[in-house]
Write a structure and sequence with these properties.
The complex is a heterodimer of chains A (213) and B (733). Chain A is mostly helical. Chain A contains eight helices and one strand. In chain A, helix 4 packs across helix 5. Chain B has 733 residues and is of the alpha/beta class. In chain B, 29% of the residues lie in helices and 17% in strands. Chain B is built from 24 helices and 25 strands. In chain B, helix 7 crosses helix 15, helix 10 crosses helix 11 and helix 10 packs across helix 13. The longest helix of chain B is centred in the N-terminal third of the chain and has 18 residues. The N and C termini of chain B lie far apart (81 Å). Classes of the chains: A mainly alpha (213), B alpha/beta (733). Chains A and B meet through helix 1 and strand 1 of A and helix 2 and strand 1 of B.
Chain lengths: 213, 733
């Protein structure tokens, strides 16, 4: 009896220890619908306002505040996506470049906060929404060059393969699993290649070292 | 309770379940940090900056005094990797491991970050500089001393100006492992301290203990030349002969490695001259007169090198000209070190190598920026002054004498007699700990500077050191900036135009652009070009050698007597990784196995297997090495590449301070050296220390890469080995 008791206590202790350890870890990122965690950002950036579809009721006059989106190209702000491994968070100067000429929204709380950062010349500490393990090297440039510039896919569609329908969100939230199986599921598909393209292969590379290097 | 009722079976059960529990809790992508990690973008990005794409800047390596030109790779404003600068004629785009570890010196967590008083109290910069000013008031000029390592470039200019402003001439340039005796011997024999050694032109290289591929003078330059020397071109593949008592990396690469009785290198050199004469080479009368006494029988008896070997060497040198003979650190470290080096240099002159494989370096037209090389006698001079109470204020930059001087010198005790000690420091090392005021320095990758290396490439150059990235710590400063601030205390008017060291440096370099080969260019174009190249060449005239090697004055003592109490010679080894120990806190260097023994993270005692057998020592025995000046304990390593009369210990480890990776690793062999100096130059005679060895009864497993069998191959002929006497290298002669 004594023996079982001590064994029991030890095991319970071990599991409790392991559980508390697990509770310290960041929240699990694999949810049933593949959605990532809701991330709180220093400024609640409205992607829908910038990239969303234009409301047909909006006037063409830019001085009248619009209700719908402005259909800004993703790559206008995430300018490095077509040239580099990472798409890059736009530098603060980019935000200010437009907003100093937009007096209509200058006094809204989010824009005021934006100018506070600019006046202090401080970078905005955005939180990472789409993170990959350190042993994975995903290259934006390769995907953007292929889908947008070679095959002429609409920008929002191409970006949306991995990022979902960002134009409907305010703060971005991860929409896809971004797991290896998920990446491979796309790389295995036969992508229609247009006749002008020189590439003969119709699916993405399947070598380990393409990503793990 | 548990002891009574808990048996092995239960223990295993708990272990199994426990393991399962831990495994389950560890599931998932643990390195993914959605919503946790911050991704910081630029406020205003520089034009060239694209996140994820590297940019490159040229600078100069400050890890040793060779002054290689480097290119740093940066991403998102952080330096990641260093490579050699391909336009450099010092290192030809290559780099050594010590240089690579420069990144770790920069990111090192043990760097000093704030100005500090003794005991660790932090103070502001203006207070610290003010304190120096206060302490200097009322102190006479010759009571102030400045201790540095080798210095060159514009930091040297400011340093000299500061010393002048203080009214002192007491500049002590100290390098613990510099070839200072060889420099003096070269000056006598060739007229210059460090001629250009053209290994690439030589057909035979005979090196008396110069580890030019590992740690001697400018190893990357020599390695590049060595590649050409070894290539079978028109002249055939060059032959390398290394003569030394303890095998170095260069010795391991040699065609013939000749073990010589410690201290008899000069005798062998004269023996070879004698043999050359006997083989028909005409010798000048004075040389013939001196070498007459060194016939094969005597030389063999003195040096332990066989007559046949000497004859072969002489034949090789006579047959294949031009050759190159190098006097290295192993030959200079004796009471008669100067004589050894002179005899070896004489061999070059007899063979007619001067002007062929020994060339004059290009003159540096500005002596004020030319290098002031460090030596060991300077620290002895400083020590004497301190002991006599002649030093009231001491500045120290780039030297760690408390660690690198023999305990017998009592440097630490004498240092405490100095009233006020200021140390410019990267780490809280042994010397910095004794300081009254510690000034934290920028890392070499954050600082501005210029350097003129001692060993120049094809023509003399001014290497430019520029920051590769923003400073990591807000309160560190560049050495130039500190000197400028100190100078402004004395000569405010003269330096008022210079806001910082950068503006001084730019002005000084641009002002002399015509002497730097860009007379016609406008200032900005010249300066930007210089920064982007990382170096500028002087319009220097080719120097000349004055070959005046003569046999007069060469007096070699008979080999040292057997010492019954201390029967073994201690040869402290300068390893390619750790050198004099200034970089012992870089884990990459500790982790890279020593090239000869493959030992990591420790010190050791190299013993010849025969010597070990005689003393009953096996690998891993902790043995006590006792000299007249002290004793240290370390693990034994049996190594056939050492003379049976000698033992060797690596330098660089054994720190009692400095940082988490240096402290308490290994033992400090500097400490037990006898304070014996070369008669002519007064330089510490490194290899003169005699030791005895005793077992302590403890044994450890030596941590090394080569495995437990070591080099013995356990009787399997995996790589066949033979002594140089047995093998006939056909075609060598």
């Amino acid at each position: 009896m004594h023996r079982f008791l001590s064994l029991f206590i030890l095991l319970v202790g071990l599991f409790a220890n392991a559980a508390s350890h697990a509770a310290d870890a960041p929240p699990s990122i694999t949810t049933a619908d593949d959605l990532g965690p809701v991330v709180e950002q220093p400024i609640e950036f409205p992607h829908n306002r910038h990239a969303g579809n234009r409301d047909p009721a909006d006037a063409a006059d830019p001085s009248v505040p619009a209700k719908g989106g402005m259909e800004i190209n993703c790559m206008y702000c995430h300018t490095y996506a077509r040239r580099s491994m990472v798409s890059g968070i736009p530098p603060l100067r980019k935000c200010i470049g437009c907003h100093q000429n937009l007096p209509s929204v200058r006094d809204t709380p989010r824009i005021q906060k934006l100018f506070e950062y600019w006046d202090a010349k401080k970078a905005i500490p955005w939180k990472k929404v789409h993170d990959l393990p350190d042993f994975v090297r995903f290259n934006h440039e390769r995907h953007i060059q292929r889908f947008i510039f070679t095959q002429g896919k609409p920008v929002q569609e191409a970006c949306g393969y991995c990022h979902g329908d960002i134009k409907t969100m305010t703060v971005a939230r991860r929409q896809k699993a971004l797991s290896m199986g998920w990446c491979v599921s796309c790389h295995e598909k036969d992508h229609p290649v247009d006749a002008a393209a020189t590439k003969t292969t119709t699916h993405g590379p399947n070598d380990c070292w393409q990503c793990h290097k | 309770m548990i002891e009574n009722s808990f048996d092995r079976r239960d223990f295993l059960k708990v272990l199994g379940w426990g393991g399962a529990a831990v495994t389950l809790s560890g599931c998932g992508f643990t390195s993914v940090q959605d919503g946790v990690e911050t991704v910081v973008s630029y406020v205003e990005p520089p034009e060239y900056a694209i996140p994820g794409i590297s940019v490159y800047f040229n600078s100069t390596c400050a890890q040793c005094d060779a002054g290689c030109n480097i290119t740093g790779r940066l991403r998102e404003g952080r330096v990641l990797k260093l490579e050699g600068n391909t336009s450099s004629t010092i290192n030809y785009g290559k780099m050594c491991g010590l240089g690579q570890a420069g990144v770790q010196a920069h990111y090192n967590p043990d760097r000093v970050r704030e100005p500090m008083l003794r005991g660790g109290e932090v103070l502001a910069w203006d207070k610290a500089l003010g304190m120096i000013n206060d302490k200097l008031s009322g102190v006479k000029g010759d009571e102030i001393a400045f201790l540095t390592g080798s210095v060159s470039g514009h930091v040297k200019v400011l340093l000299q100006n500061y010393l002048e402003a203080l009214g002192t001439k007491n500049h002590y340039a100290y390098e613990a492992v510099a070839p200072s005796v060889v420099r003096a011997a070269n000056k006598k024999a060739y007229g210059v301290e460090m001629p250009r050694l053209r290994l690439d032109k030589a057909k035979v290289v005979v090196s008396f203990g110069a580890d030019f591929l590992g740690a001697w003078v400018s190893p990357v330059n020599f390695s590049q030349q060595y590649g050409k020397f070894r290539k079978a071109g028109d002249t055939g593949r060059g032959v390398l002969v290394q003569i030394e008592s303890k095998m170095t990396l260069t010795g391991a690469n040699a065609d013939r490695w000749i073990a010589i009785r410690p201290g008899t290198e000069g005798i062998l050199a004269l023996g070879i001259i004698h043999a050359l004469g006997a083989a028909g080479l005409s010798l000048p009368a004075d040389v013939a007169a001196v070498s007459k006494a060194y016939d094969a029988a005597r030389v063999t008896k003195d040096t332990g090198v066989s007559a046949e070997q000497i004859e072969k060497l002489a034949a090789l040198l006579k047959e294949r000209s031009p050759s190159l003979v190098i006097a290295g650190s192993a030959a200079e470290g004796y009471v008669h070190g100067s004589q050894n080096a002179a005899a070896i240099n004489l061999l070059n002159s007899v063979l007619g190598n001067i002007g062929k494989t020994i060339e004059a370096p290009t003159n540096v037209p500005f002596p004020q920026v030319a290098v002031t090389t460090g030596n060991r006698s300077s620290v002895q001079a400083l020590n004497d002054s301190m002991a006599n109470g002649k030093v009231k204020v001491l500045f120290s930059y780039g030297a760690n004498p408390v660690f690198t001087t023999p305990t017998a010198l009592k440097f630490k005790e004498n240092l405490s007699k100095v009233g006020f000690k200021v140390v410019f420091a990267h780490y809280l090392d042994e010397t910095t700990q004794e300081a009254d005021l510690v000034l934290p320095l920028d890392s070499a990758l954050e600082d501005w500077g210029t350097s003129v290396p001692e060993y120049q490439g094809e023509s003399a150059q001014l290497s430019i050191q520029q920051p590769l990235m923003e400073k990591l710590h807000a309160n560190t400063r560049g050495v130039g900036d500190i000197l400028l601030a100190l100078l402004k205390q004395r000569r405010a008017n003269e330096y008022k135009d210079y806001e910082d060291f950068y503006s001084y440096l730019r002005n000084a370099v641009v002002k002399n652009k015509s002497a730097l080969g860009s007379a016609g260019e406008d200032d900005d174009t010249f300066w930007t070009g210089a920064l982007s190249k990382g170096l500028v060449y002087f319009n220097g005239s080719k120097g000349s050698l004055s070959a005046k090697s003569s046999a007069a004055g060469i007096v070699l003592p008979a080999p040292a007597e057997e010492d019954a109490a201390y029967p073994l010679h201690l040869i402290p080894a300068v390893t390619a990784n750790l050198r004099d120990g200034r970089h012992a806190n870089l884990p990459w260097l500790q982790e890279s196995p020593d090239p000869m023994t493959t030992i990591v993270w420790d010190s050791w005692v190299e013993l010849h297997p025969k010597t070990a057998a005689k003393l009953g020592i096996v690998e891993g025995d902790i043995i006590e090495v006792t000299s007249r000046s002290g004793s240290i304990k370390a693990q034994a390593y049996l190594f056939p590449g050492i003379h049976p009369d000698a033992v060797s210990m690596p330098l660089g480890n054994g720190h009692v301070a400095m940082g988490r990776w240096a402290k308490d690793v290994g033992v400090n062999a500097f400490g037990i050296l006898d304070q014996v100096v070369d008669k002519e130059t007064g330089e510490l005679a490194f290899n003169e220390t005699r030791v005895k060895i005793s077992k302590t009864g403890k044994r450890v497993i030596v941590v090394k890469d080569e495995g437990f069998i070591g080099g013995s191959q356990a009787g399997n002929k995996i790589a066949v080995r033979a002594s140089t006497d047995e093998v006939e290298l056909s075609g060598e002669v």
